[in-house]
Design a protein that fits this description.
Helix content: 40-55%
Shape: elongated
Order of helices and strands: HHHHHHHHEEHEEHHE
Structural class: mainly alpha
Oligomer: single chain
Number of helices: 11
């Protein structure tokens, strides 16, 4: 008499498991943690679909049958209804989750050289509107002190330096979080950056060197002594450029807490919170000024003002668009100096 543990696994699921194991064994620079998570999730979802609902009669046979159009369509129909989830939730899967499922199938098919006809992807959400030059200029003016100072001086000093780097280079929150002091030229004329790996890039992006504007250099000259003051008392040297200004309390699952000192590196979420706090301060001040019918005029009438989004990404994309337009105006000559063969 056989038990559940002794039951044979369908050959298609065994092949899928081997492929996912091989892909997840790749080093992080070849396969990121998020992609590995999606692959494991797809493996579990296919197991639940096949064992609990069935797909097509031959979906049990091999990986090619499991990834055949009829089998995939049946799987996605179950996924859309939320019937193959592994997170304990019962609601339908979102368009983003379905897109992640399909991308994971593509990776597995490519890795195993299995024929795969990609089904129609759910539409991706439209990109958020970029931040207009007027609004970006107002944010800069706000933190240069031309509008009422509503945020502490250290925050203002750090934000101006960080914002200057974004305006000069189009850096994302992930890029900012990885910047080190050593990436700055001694005279602060340039900064080296390396963009995060995108999607299924086989090689990491090249290291880039960007010229910094005089305003950004001035802001960095004000920020670096503050950073030195914050990091000097720490027991271990801090290489990262952007650091915390205040104590931060971490809470662990067992209920214990640990208070981190100021001067520790800002992670991606910390960088995002810096820009969120800055945007909220600007929006609050602008609402006050507009209610008094005295909104500042920057490059155009006050009607051009729109609330600043509290995420960095729309700012970064706006800057990136302008840098690309500037490059096209120069006949395709990039402003960035690309340095190959050097580490960040």
């Amino acid at each position: 008499m056989s038990t559940a543990s002794q039951q044979l696994v369908a050959p298609s699921l065994a092949a899928l498991s081997r492929a996912v194991d091989e892909l997840c064994a790749r080093p992080p620079e070849e396969m990121g943690a998020s992609r590995k998570k999606h692959l494991r999730a797809l493996q579990g979802a296919f197991e639940r679909a096949l064992n609990n609902y069935g797909l097509t009669p031959d979906a049990y046979d091999d990986l090619a049958s499991l990834l055949a159009p009829d089998s995939v369509d049946a799987f996605l129909a179950l996924a859309i209804r939320g019937l193959v989830r592994g997170d304990g939730k019962t609601g339908p899967e979102s368009d983003a989750q379905i897109r992640a499922r399909i991308r994971a199938m593509e990776i597995i098919a490519e890795h195993t050289r299995t024929p795969f006809a990609r089904p129609e992807m759910p539409p991706a959400p439209a990109p958020a509107p970029v931040v207009s030059p007027v609004t970006r200029a107002l944010l800069l003016r706000h933190f240069e002190g031309q509008i009422e100072r509503s945020i502490s001086e250290p925050f203002r000093v750090r934000f101006l330096a960080m914002y200057g780097v974004v305006l000069d280079t189009g850096s994302s929150s992930g890029t900012l979080a990885e910047q080190h002091v050593a990436h700055l030229a001694r005279d602060l004329s340039t900064i080296r950056i390396q963009r995060p790996r995108q999607g299924r890039m086989a090689e990491p992006p090249p290291v880039e060197e960007w010229e910094l504007s005089p305003a950004t250099r001035d802001a960095l000259n004000a920020y670096l002594p503050l950073r030195d003051h914050l990091t000097r008392p720490l027991q271990h040297p801090v290489r990262h450029l952007w650091v915390s200004l205040e104590h931060n309390t971490r809470r662990f699952p067992d209920g214990t807490t640990l208070q981190d000192p100021p001067g520790l590196p800002l992670r991606r979420g910390g960088v995002q919170r810096v820009f969120s706090r800055a945007a909220e301060a600007l929006n609050e001040e602008m609402e006050k000024l507009q209610s008094e019918r005295n909104a500042p005029q920057v490059g155009g009438p006050g009607a051009e003002w729109e609330p600043m989004p509290t995420r960095l990404e729309p700012i970064r994309r706006a800057v990136d668009d302008e840098l690309r337009q500037r490059e096209e105006a120069r006949g395709g000559v990039p402003q960035v100096i690309v340095l190959r063969g050097r580490t960040a």
